[in-house]
Amino acid sequence: MSFQEIKCLRCGKNTLVTDVESSEVFCSNCGIVVEEKVNDSRSERRFTDSPTIKSHTGDKTSLTRHDRGLSTMINPFDKDSAGNPLSTSMKSSMTRLRKWDSRSRVKTSNDKNLQQALLELLKMKEKLSLPDAIAEKASYIYRKALEKKLVRGRSISSLIAACLYAACRESETPRTLREVAATIGIKRKEISATYRLIFKELDLKMPVVDSVSCVAKIASNAELSEKTKRYAMKILKNAERQNALAGKHPMGVAASALYLACINLEENRTQKEIADAAGITEVTIRNRCKSLKEVDGIWKKLQ
């Protein structure tokens, strides 16, 4: 039962008020204090500019931090609890404490490896414009790879890039190996080999990439209209009903469908422009266009 439903013991009126500053519940009519030291459920007041969640329980845990966000951090601002600047001797003491605090977090070589890998992951996440959920999944896969000792003899960059690509594949987010390799500055072949390794050793289950999900990305890169994008989706769905997309590269099929949609709607785009937007070659578009046109009845229905 809340305090609003309790009547005052002296005057018998339902006029109880909670004062969060003094942590008291009193009657606004007669002034009697009903209860003292009430728990404050408001957000905690802090004297920092930290973007973390300001609650009594602290920030949420995250797999993208090597310590999962469970360790404490000494305030980086040289001010006391009242906001006053610290003395010179206290500043030097706090600097030494921060240094030893950061060193004590990394105890083993695995912790150091994980810390460096997660820093690379956050950089790649920002460059590829990926949500936090995919970064969490990638860090989870990397932790599993670290437990299996797959890091030995391989670079941290290639392994974390392969884990990020695996997380994108698992969440059906259209990101290619070429894009992931370009963000981290290593060869696509190296990431591909590492991805096959973690796929086999960790027994990952990857869904088949849907070519329809790639249409929006290519259309955005090529600056195509919404009408053309929907028309290309219609082409792909009709081809999918006739099992014409089996074994085809989803990005190539989506780019070909967009090129056919541009032709039908008279939106001037060359094969090179569509190919550059999709990250494929013009030959791939020509071959996929032939296979889409050869599907029985699909081109006639769309005209």
Automatic annotation (TrEMBL):
Q: Please give the CDD domains that the UniProt record associates with this protein.
A: CYCLIN_TFIIB_archaea_like_rpt2
Q: What SMART domains has UniProt attached to this entry?
A: CYCLIN (SM00385)
Q: Biological process GO annotation list? A: transcription preinitiation complex assembly
Return the annotated region ranges for Disordered: 41-64
Segments traversing the membrane: none
Please give the name of this protein.
Transcription initiation factor IIB
One family from Pfam that matches here is TFIIB
Q: Which organism is it from?
A: Nitrosopumilus ureiphilus
Domain TFIIB-type: start-end pairs: 4-35
Looking up Gene3D superfamilies in the UniProt record yields: 1.10.472.170, Cyclin-like
What does the UniProt record say this protein does? Stabilizes TBP binding to an archaeal box-A promoter. Also responsible for recruiting RNA polymerase II to the pre-initiation complex (DNA-TBP-TFIIB).
Output the Gene Ontology cellular-component terms: transcription preinitiation complex
Keyword Phosphoprotein appears in the UniProt entry: no
Keyword Membrane listed? The answer is no
Q: Which keywords belong to this entry? A: Initiation factor, Metal-binding, Protein biosynthesis, Repeat, Transcription, Transcription regulation, Zinc, Zinc-finger
Molecular function GO terms recorded: TBP-class protein binding; translation initiation factor activity; zinc ion binding
Query: What does the similarity note say?
Result: Belongs to the TFIIB family.
